[in-house]
UniProtKB/TrEMBL annotation:
<dbReference type="Pfam" id="PF00126">
    <property type="entry name" value="HTH_1"/>
</dbReference>
<dbReference type="GO" id="GO:0003677">
    <property type="term" value="F:DNA binding"/>
</dbReference>
<dbReference type="GO" id="GO:0032993">
    <property type="term" value="C:protein-DNA complex"/>
</dbReference>
<dbReference type="InterPro" id="IPR005119">
    <property type="entry name" value="LysR_subst-bd"/>
</dbReference>
<keyword id="KW-0804">Transcription</keyword>
<dbReference type="InterPro" id="IPR036390">
    <property type="entry name" value="WH_DNA-bd_sf"/>
</dbReference>
<dbReference type="InterPro" id="IPR000847">
    <property type="entry name" value="LysR_HTH_N"/>
</dbReference>
<dbReference type="GO" id="GO:0003700">
    <property type="term" value="F:DNA-binding transcription factor activity"/>
</dbReference>
<keyword id="KW-0010">Activator</keyword>
<comment type="similarity">
    <text>Belongs to the LysR transcriptional regulatory family.</text>
</comment>
<protein>
    <submittedName>
        <fullName>LysR family transcriptional regulator</fullName>
    </submittedName>
</protein>
<keyword id="KW-0238">DNA-binding</keyword>
<dbReference type="InterPro" id="IPR036388">
    <property type="entry name" value="WH-like_DNA-bd_sf"/>
</dbReference>
<dbReference type="Pfam" id="PF03466">
    <property type="entry name" value="LysR_substrate"/>
</dbReference>
<keyword id="KW-0805">Transcription regulation</keyword>
<feature type="domain" description="HTH lysR-type">
    <location>
        <begin position="1"/>
        <end position="58"/>
    </location>
</feature>
């Protein structure tokens, strides 16, 4: 069993296609296919099922995939340590973030990363929670910034960074906007605007209302936070906007309010795959994010 065979197998599982996997590994398709067959012959079991559309892992392949990833990660850790010089992290980090976090946290995070680790390559992906979790589980992503709850929590590692308050957001002309205290039950007669179900903020907002005995009258669903705020400005309903977003929207014709009697928030977490160890570059990035999140207004 050779390391390059495991690398080809993991990439084939990621791509689901021999041609794309070969391209990603910088080898010809026949060469990659031959090495996969050699690996299968040595193991005595088929790893992939070849189809007209590409390749699909067999049950045995699904079982072997996490082990192959761990072996490659350990090998990368060894190379990382051997090649380390002057304590500089110089590898690549694939980072994902949900849309209600990305525009508000990533600029400061990237600035700090470039300043502290100029040789670190940071690749960013903005996507929904489900797709980010999928990326973590199949190895496309090293880390993701999201909020709890999220799928497969028991299979992933997560570090809570801070709590982000969810602020009730009303048009300036809304009858409740001038009140100093607003309870959720005060909203019963008003329409609600939410992010679409694929976005966790929409589900969190509805769950927040329902947990207080309020059945929200959802009138509009949107895929963009900016659109939600614009619709609120137009007097079409209320919503809950994360505080990190509200701080950059003070110029908008809306009012932001903490819910009475107890404010509500979402937990912002850094999530990564439970592989048992991290490369030196991954550890440096993890520690930097945790350190940065502990400084008020640093993120």
């Amino acid at each position: 069993m050779e390391m390059h065979q495991l690398r080809y197998f993991v990439e084939l599982a990621r791509q689901g296609n021999f041609s794309r996997a070969a391209e990603a590994c910088y080898v010809s398709q026949p060469s990659l296919s031959q090495q996969i067959m050699k690996l299968e012959d040595e193991l005595g079991q088929p790893l992939v099922q070849r189809t007209r559309k590409g390749a699909r892992l067999t049950h045995f392949g699904e079982t072997m995939l996490p082990r192959a990833r761990r072996i490659l990660l350990e090998a990368e850790c060894i190379r990382d340590e051997a090649q380390a010089h002057n304590d500089i992290a110089c590898g690549k980090i694939n980072l994902g973030a949900i849309p209600t976090i990305a525009p508000f946290l990533l600029p400061a995070l990237m600035e700090r990363c470039l300043a502290e680790y100029p040789q670190m390559e940071l690749s960013l992906v903005e996507d929904t929670t489900n797709d980010l979790v999928s990326g973590l589980r199949n190895g496309r992503l090293d880390f993701a910034l999201m909020s709890r709850p999220f799928p497969w929590e028991n299979e992933l590692e997560a570090r809570t960074l801070f709590d982000d308050e969810l602020l009730l957001t009303l048009a300036e002309s809304h009858p409740l906007n001038k009140r100093r205290r607003i309870k959720l039950e005060d909203l019963a007669e008003y329409p609600m605007i939410v992010m679409k179900d694929m976005h966790c903020l929409g589900r969190q907002s509805i769950s927040l209302c329902e947990s207080s005995g309020l059945t929200p009258k959802v009138s509009i669903e949107s895929a963009q936070l900016e659109t939600v705020v614009s619709l609120i400005e137009g007097g079409l309903g209320f919503s809950f906007i994360p505080k990190m977003a509200a701080e950059q929207m003070k110029h908008r014709r809306v009012g932001f309010h903490s819910v009475s009697p107890q404010s509500v928030s979402r937990a912002i977490v850094l999530v990564w795959a439970n592989t048992g160890s991290m490369t030196r570059t991954q550890r440096a990035f993890h520690d930097m994010v945790v350190e940065l999140s502990a400084v008020p207004r640093a993120l």
